[in-house]
């Protein structure tokens, strides 16, 4: 069983879990406008938290919602989600490979949505979330990262994708389910200075982040 993970308290409140992901081209109701800013076709997976508490959440690593969308390079699509959704969207079809997390909830009980971008659990590329403000990052933090910052599993081996290719992703800064990577943490301290990306465990003293909100239960999410 995976341990709980510490998240921003505004994102960790009670929710009901939904098992299917409805895809909808309309831009009304709760959900996100998902934009693939990369130069390749990309699948995106949504993970509803297993449970939510005050400042913590049950990390859902291996049960993505059904019908994950695949977007062509440059494509934009509105993804309809229930207002009860509290979790994340990330690249790829495996929650077990460290990745950049775009975390959000669509209704905090007052009708307001909240979201952030986090590299606490890994970094497989840039992403932003737009609500009342834009949070996240657009720069390539992987290209020039030190060798020791790349993710390794508990045995010291590099992560591999389902097709067998090595996942060139940066490691976790908190060590919830893979070893904590101090070199990745130090890299972010040098490179992430605008307070718009979550990269440290807040309880450890550190990187608070700007959190976006939305009054209509919608965000725009861009993956680079």
UniProtKB/TrEMBL annotation:
Looking up SUPFAM superfamilies in the UniProt record yields: Osmotin, thaumatin-like protein
Q: Does the keyword Signal apply?
A: yes
Q: Which domain of life is it from?
A: Eukaryota
InterPro entries from the entry? Answer: Osmotin/thaumatin-like_sf
Keywords attached to this Swiss-Prot or TrEMBL record, sorted alphabetically, are:
Signal
Q: Where is the signal peptide?
A: 1-20
According to UniProt, the name of this protein is Uncharacterized protein
